[in-house]
């Protein structure tokens, strides 16, 4: 009976059984903060291999303790998270926990970081060069520049085609007008002798009529 008292005291203390502690995932390692800006930052971490991780949770608070935020995501294999709505030039403390099939891990070591000024957020530091978001923006800028060049080339080609068409149209119009003038000129010249000949015929007819009257 005396041998049961230690077991009874250990169970009544409310400790988690050793089996449950063994099934809990280990705490994340290599927690770091990258891509610091005035109102955002990216937290990344690593998880030891061999453990089934189904999510993560992040506790965020200001160093002065006035604000605290808790982020929890499940059904994801992500190893990073973007923190939004941060205040500029403010010190923050974060800790990350892994979520496994049997519970959450212990919190990682505390990581301190400080946000930038709004005026300095565009002067990126060396860590921003590896930012996927920044790389995506750079690619989109290159795509926009290429699209603008293509649009300008197409517009120039269309302008050249329209100018060539207008030039050819003017040439054709000038040729048509000159041809019409040449056709009208011979017709006018032909009408004159016909009119005169007609006049002479009429005079001859009048003379014949006069001669006939004199005979009578």
Task: Describe the overall structure.
With 216 residues, the chain is α+β, with helices and mostly antiparallel strands. The chain has two domains: 4-129, Immunoglobulins (Immunoglobulin-like, Sandwich); 131-216. It contains three helices and eight strands; from the N terminus they run ααββββββββα. It has helices at residues 4-12, 18-23, 132-215, and strands spanning 29-34, 41-46, 53-62, 68-74, 80-83, 91-100, 103-104, 111-114. The strands form two sheets. Strands 3, 4, 6, 7 and 8 form a five-stranded antiparallel sheet that branches. The protein starts with a helix and ends with a helix. 11% of the residues are buried. The model is unreliable at 1-19 (pLDDT under 50). Residues 25-118 form the Fibronectin type-III domain. Its main location: membrane. Keywords: Glycoprotein, Membrane, Secreted, Transmembrane, Transmembrane helix. Residues 1-13 have a biased composition (Low complexity). It is found in: Membrane; Secreted.
